[in-house]
Design brief:
The complex is a heterodimer of chains A (327) and B (296).
Chain A: H1 3-21, H2 25-50, H3 58-75, H4 83-102, H5 108-127, H6 129-132, E1 138-139, E2 145-146, E3 149-150, H7 153-178, H8 181-191, H9 193-198, H10 203-229, E4 231-232, H11 239-252, H12 259-273, H13 280-295, H14 302-321
Antiparallel strand pairs in A: 1-4, 2-3
Helix pairs in contact in A: 1-7, 2-7, 2-10, 2-11, 2-12, 3-4, 3-5, 3-10, 4-5, 4-10, 7-10, 8-10, 11-12, 11-13
Chain B: H1 2-39, H2 46-61, H3 70-93, H4 102-125, E1 139-142, E2 145-148, H5 149-171, H6 173-183, H7 185-190, H8 195-220, H9 229-242, H10 247-268, H11 270-287
Helix pairs in contact in B: 1-5, 1-8, 1-9, 1-10, 2-3, 2-4, 2-8, 3-8, 5-6, 6-8, 9-10, 9-11, 10-11
Classes of the chains: A mainly alpha (327), B mainly alpha (296).
């Protein structure tokens, strides 16, 4: 067992034992939301980080999954265990719809179209009041219940483990993705699109697959979130969710498997610590994003590498100096 | 001939509200276009600058606050907005200028800037909604529809400001220098133009226009920290429609979107109009990413 996999096992063991240590409902709530954010942001990392496609509709996939789960399980009476499959299917379909126009576009236009798509969905949600609840959001979504076990019992213990299992699956899937031929194609398109296409990579097919794959994660997380808080609100299409997710991704480090996970958890804790600041914490968030972009473009994930280079450099320099402390 | 009367009524209502909307969009979108033209970036904090402009004007002019009168309010709001533009340029744009993916990074930094400004507005001025007094009181009748003097002022001022902007860019040395930097930064610098100074000029003008638009909007709608986001999105549609960076295209786009929105609000209702606008926006981007009058 390498040191890295040991750290990973310890990390998940701590997360798995957390409910045993504490059943404080506030800590439980914060940790469930943090885990779900980690899943969403990891998914965004696939299209934005590994794929280099600036898809600003990612949080819209999350919202669409939440609404789809809510509407189908409450209004149309689907069983609650189908929530996650419904969320994933809805998010993947939405991602394919967004991806079609994006195939022809580059740079700022990708941002504008994906952003416009989110706003279009928001307007649709506000319009279809009888279906979606309009401004007030879609409330009283049936909670998840399997074989008579309610996931809400024991301070939402079920949701915590569901989210944790979701996160583990996310990490496994994205780890696979990174070193699979599919992942290489995605990275090749990011690094040099013209060259990659000329070497026979089918841009449209790979990009569609990237979007669909990245949408699985917000799909699942959106469904769990909707069943957990029992509501879907139009705010989920707004700037705040987007900004928070973006800061998590940047804080953790783009295009790494662990960056978004660590970023989401650290950021969620940070936000809770900053709660006494009120709206002031958003100011800190904004400054944080710009500071990371300016000074640590690789985020937290860049720190080990940075330390390694620094150590290597200092090792090289030390003998040159000729007189260490022990000489 | 009742239906002729009905068409007349519809046309007049659409004409009046379309003119007001278009004029506002011209003011907002022109600022976006100038910055896009010179720096090649999209300023997502543009709407937040409008918000700050509106709040500053309120603080200066409202009897409940300082009460120095509307003229002082407008002037100080525009000046504050311009300074704010300079600060945004210095903190959120210039440090990243040498990065290869400048466009995408500045989307993130200006989004954060907007987030910062909107929440600052919330902290400073509180969540209570405010409204500015009309810059000009009284009513004016346009083509048989009564609109407020304030709205008439916007309708008249917007084209005049655009004309002024055009003259500035066309006939003054600084204006030419701004355009030179926009066309070819390196060559402009070789001819002794300080590119960074021209960026600052472009940003100050853009933000000043945004501040002015914010003041005008603040007297029509209520001032909230989110006041700028919906008009900003409309202005984005305008700039895309007109072709990013083309000022004449932006003006045409603004009037198209303004009248289109007015007509569709009249026939389809306010809610469907928003959805229709976004659909049109996406379709245009897909069919003609360079806009109606944009260049490659």
């Amino acid at each position: 067992m390498t040191r890295k996999s040991l750290i990973i096992c310890v990390f998940f063991a701590i997360l798995a034992l957390l409910p045993v240590v504490s059943d404080d409902s506030y800590i439980r709530h914060v940790s469930i939301v943090a885990l779900l954010y980690a899943i969403v942001v990891s998914g965004w990392n696939v299209s934005l980080g590994f794929g280099g496609v600036f898809n600003f509709a990612h949080l819209a996939f999350f919202a669409i999954a939440a609404y789809a789960t809510g509407i189908l399980t409450k209004t149309y009476g689907f069983p609650s265990w189908m929530g996650v499959p419904i969320g994933i299917i809805a998010a993947v379909i939405a991602s394919l719809i967004v991806c079609l126009p994006v195939l022809r576009l580059k740079g700022i236009y990708v941002i504008l179209v994906t952003f416009g798509f989110g706003q279009l969905c928001l307007q649709f949600v506000l319009n279809q009041r009888s279906l979606t609840g309009g401004n007030f959001g879609f409330v009283q979504i049936p909670p998840l219940r399997v074989f008579g076990y309610s996931f809400r019992s024991d301070q939402a213990m079920g949701y915590y483990y569901l989210a944790l299992v979701g996160l583990i699956l996310t990490v496994v899937l994205i780890n696979w993705f990174r070193s699979s031929p599919f992942g290489w194609r995605v990275a090749a398109l990011r690094e040099n699109e013209d060259y990659a296409v000329s070497r026979g990579i089918a841009l449209a097919r790979v990009r569609l697959a990237t979007f669909a794959f990245s949408a699985i994660f917000p799909g699942a997380a959106g469904a769990i979130y909707a069943q957990y808080v029992r509501a879907a609100s139009p705010d989920m299409f707004g700037f705040s969710f987007l900004t928070i997710a973006l800061s998590m991704l940047l804080l953790g480090g783009v295009a790494t498997v662990w960056g978004p996970v660590v970023g989401a958890l650290v950021f969620a804790i940070l936000t809770e610590v900053m709660t006494p600041l009120g709206p002031g914490r958003y100011l800190v968030t904004a400054v944080l994003i710009v500071a990371i972009l300016r000074f640590f473009p690789k985020g937290l994930a860049g720190i080990p590498d940075g330390l390694a280079t620094w150590r290597a450099r200092s090792r090289k320099i030390d003998p040159a100096k000729g007189h260490g402390p022990n000489v | 001939m009742e239906w002729i009367d009905q068409i007349g009524v519809a046309a007049r209502a659409i004409f009046a509200s379309g003119l007001v909307l278009s004029s506002l969009y011209v003011l907002i979108a022109a600022g976006l276009a100038i910055v896009w033209n010179t720096l090649g970036i999209f300023n997502f904090a543009h709407g937040a600058i409008m918000v700050i402009g509106a709040y500053v004007a309120w603080t200066i002019s409202d009897p409940a606050a300082l009460g120095w009168g509307m003229a002082a309010g407008v002037l100080i709001a525009v000046a504050t907005a311009a300074v704010l533009g300079l600060v945004i340029n210095r903190l959120l744009i210039l440090p990243f200028l040498s990065q290869p993916n400048l466009v995408l990074i500045t989307v993130m930094t200006t989004l954060s800037g907007a987030f910062f400004l909107e929440n600052s507005a919330l902290l400073i001025w509180g969540p209570r909604i405010k409204q500015l007094e009309k810059v000009v009181s009284g009513n004016v009748s346009i083509a048989g529809t009564a609109i407020s003097g304030h709205e008439a002022t916007i309708i008249v001022l917007a084209p005049l400001l655009m004309l002024g902007l055009w003259a500035f860019l066309r006939f003054t040395w600084v204006g030419s220098a701004v355009r030179a930097v926009a066309q070819n930064r390196e060559f402009a610098e070789l001819s002794g133009i300080r590119a960074r100074a021209m960026y600052a000029v472009a940003f100050a003008i853009s933000a000043g226009l945004a501040g002015f638009a914010g003041v005008m909007l603040g007297a029509i709608r209520f001032i909230t920290p989110g006041l700028g986001s919906e008009p900003l999105i409309k202005a984005m549609i305008v700039v895309i429609l007109g072709g990013l960076g083309s000022i004449p295209g932006t003006v045409v786009g603004a009037y198209l979107v303004g009248f289109g929105e007015a007509a569709s609000t009249y026939f389809l209702g306010a809610y469907w109009t928003q959805a229709a606008l976004f659909l049109v926006f996406i379709v245009i981007l897909v069919i003609r990413p360079n806009g109606i009058m944009g260049r490659k």
